[in-house]
Amino acid sequence: MHELSIAQSIVDIVIEQMNIHSLSKVESVMLRIGALRGIVVDSLNFGFDVTVRETPMEGAKLVVETVPLRGTCLTCHQEFIMDDWFGDCPLCNSLTVEITSGKELEIVSIEGT
Amino acid sequence: MKIPIVKQVLEANDRIAEENKRLFEGKKLLVINLMSGPGAGKTTLLVKTIQTLKDQYRIGVIEGDIQSTYDAEKIVSAGAPAVQINTGGACHLDANMVREALAHLDIDSLDILIVENVGNLVCPAEFNLGEDYKVALLSVAEGDDKPLKYPLIFHESSLLLVNKTDLLPYVDCSVKKVREESLKINPRLEIFEVSCKTGDGLTRWFEWLRGKVKKKK
Lengths: 113, 217
Prior knowledge:
heterodimer, A: 113 residues, alpha+beta, hypothetical protein PF0899 fold, three-stranded mixed beta sheet, 2 helices, B: 217 residues, alpha/beta, Rossmann fold
C-alpha cells in the first residue's frame, strides 16, 4: 500500500521538475530502489499509472533499477554485497553485519520533451 | 531529452520530519515512534506505561488509526493527553500528519511524546516522523517468522519488545528465533521480552524510557 504514497511523491517531484526544465511531456522516469525498501514494482507501476492520469505526466513510464544490499562487518570492517537480509562476513565469518545500502529510493533522471 | 535530477522520492516527508525533529530538539522532548502489526498490544503497552510513569513524566500520545477514536479514548482514560489522527485509509503515518497533530497537543508541557503508528508491519517503517527512536512491538502470537518476513521494521528500530510472553505455552513461537533473526537483520537492536497483561518484563522498558528521557534533558 505504501506504493501509492510513493507514486504520489514521484509525480509531485517530476511535475515540479517539468516546470523548472520547461518540459511539456515526460516519457520516462528513472528510479533507483534499494532491495530493502520492500517496494513491489508492479504495485508502484499501478499506483503511478493511476496518479498520472489527467496530469501533465499522463503516459509516462517508470524505469526501475534495483540496488542490491550491501553490508559492512562490524568486527573486521570488510564491505561486501549480500544476497539476503543477513549473512556472515565472508572474511571473518562474524554474524554482526550492518546493512549499509539497499535503502535507496531516488529519482535519477527524467526523459521528456 | 534526458535530464539528470537525483531527488529523494520521500524528500518532502523527510524535510517535514527534519523540521519536526528540530522542534522536538528545541523543547528537549523525547519522541518515540511505536510500530507493530494490528493487535500486537501497542495501546495496552501505552496504557500500562502511562499508569506507571505518569507521576514521574508528562506523557502525550498521538494515535494513528485508519478510523475510529477507540485508542485515543483509552489513552485519555489512562490519564494522558492524546490526539487521534484518522488516516482515512492510509496504512501509515507520515511526518506531515504528525506536524498537524502537534497543533492539538501542548508539547511544551510534555517530557515524552509517543506516536502510536497505524497497525502495520510494513509501511510505517518507511516514513520518518522526526522521532528520536523507532520502537517495534511483536507479539508471540504473530509467530517467530516475522523478522525475516518483514525485515525493514526490525532494521529501522532501536528497540524490539516481544510482547504477550504469557501466551508462550499456547503458541508455537520461539523467542530465541525471533531474537536471533532480528539481530541478524539489525545487530544493534535491543530486545526485551514483556507481557503487558501480567506486567512481566515491563520494568526494563520503563528503565529504557527513563534512560532516554535523561539523555534528552
